[in-house]
Write a structure and sequence with these properties.
- The protein is an all-alpha fold.
- The protein has one domain: Farnesyl Diphosphate Synthase.
- The protein is about 65% helix and about 0% strand.
- This is Terpene synthase.
Length: about 350
């Protein structure tokens, strides 16, 4: 498949913008920690970490978080982007699932083990310390949910690397199943309870409706990231697995047609998210209402962050990038109407259940 750039259409997202007022303070605290974490070997590495603007990213997911916890979530996002670049998308493990697996699950164990732990791998050592900070800040249920979500993410990445090693492009339903995990949305949203000090009871968090809403928020953001990252990953020859290329390979669509179908699919999922959330929220207790609101903040915030972040706008992820469209033209990023397409998500077995009667 030949590489090509893609023009990202305006985003349908009727969710209000919000950002935590202490995002810059969270960034300073997180970057100071990273500077002494052992992951950064000089100013260039630290600049690359800073180029992900992870504190701004999470400040948009949790605009009302406890300021003393917000920076902890930013730490993991900084770590996650660095790990993704070094060992998931690039490097010797990026197409070697047999080598990736023991490394990844050693990392997972470092996250889960409480107390003192010697880790020779600097990524494992940093992740262990993040886990310790989470355990000090939040309850065991919230931390355990994050650990489970983290394991699911690594499993999804393992699946993605296996496809890369085999040179295979998954079909649409398989791709969406994989992307629900490999995009990192599960641990990202699992941190909402930690930073907000929430305690959503297990029967509520595990109910079909809340599970569906969480998965839909993850998938919308993941498909948006496929669109945002296409230009960057084309430059790095990493475009073999994305929703755009699923449509190009399996349906033989042109690039513009593939983009249109990807956007239409994403818009249909977002519409279902909005309808179901509006049905669930009025009778939800306060912790669940807060959680559901922040699922939406994450969808909107992920778009706003990606439109401005050096990670997507510059080849090295470091240089202070110009905004893709000038601020005075920012309205051009958004549309009030969802796009329609040929691919009805209700016909995809892995996600069709989201359209069941879940609001009972």
């Amino acid at each position: 498949m030949t590489s090509a750039s893609v023009h990202t259409p305006p985003f349908y997202c009727p969710i209000e913008s919000a950002v935590h007022p202490e995002a810059e303070q969270a960034e300073r605290r997180a970057l100071a920690w990273l500077g002494r974490s052992g992951l950064c070997h000089g100013d260039t590495d630290l600049a690359r970490f800073a180029g992900s603007r992870s504190a701004d990213f999470y400040a948009r997911f949790a605009p009302n978080a406890d300021p003393d916890r917000l920076w902890l979530a930013a730490l993991w996002v900084y770590w996650g982007f660095a790990f993704d670049d070094a060992r998931c998308d690039e490097g010797p493990l990026a197409a070697d699932p047999a080598a990736f697996a023991p490394m990844a699950f050693s990392l997972q164990r470092a996250l889960e083990v409480p107390g003192r732990l010697h880790c020779a791998d600097p990524y494992a050592a940093a992740l262990h310390e993040i886990g310790e900070l989470f355990r000090a800040a939040a309850g065991p249920v919230q931390v355990r949910r994050f650990e489970h979500a983290h394991r699911a993410w690594l499993t999804g990445v393992q699946w993605q690397i296996g496809n890369r090693a085999a040179g295979r492009m998954p079909g649409l339903d398989e791709y969406l199943t994989m992307r629900l995990h490999s995009a990192g949305g599960e641990p990202t949203y699992a941190m909402l309870e930690i930073v907000n000090g929430l305690d959503v009871p297990d029967p509520v968090m595990d109910s079909p409706a809340v599970r569906a809403l969480t998965e839909m928020a993850i998938l919308v953001a993941a498909l948006d990231n496929d669109l945002h990252s296409h230009i960057r990953e084309t430059a790095r020859q990493q475009t073999e697995q994305s929703v755009i290329n699923v449509f190009r390979v399996h349906h033989h669509y042109s690039l513009p047609r593939a983009v249109d179908e990807a956007v239409a699919l994403r818009d249909a999922v977002l519409d279902r998210f909005l309808v179901l959330r509006d049905r669930i929220t009025p009778r939800a207790a306060a912790p669940l209402r807060h959680y559901l609101a922040d699922l939406g903040h994450g969808i909107r915030g992920n778009i706003e962050w990606a439109l401005r972040v050096p990670r997507y706008l510059t080849p090295d992820g470091i240089a202070p990038a110009a905004v893709r469209v000038p601020e005075q033209a920012a309205a051009g990023h958004w549309t009030d109407a969802p796009r329609s397409g040929r691919h009805d998500p209700r016909r995809l077995p892995s996600i069709a259940w989201w359209w069941s009667d879940l609001a009972r």
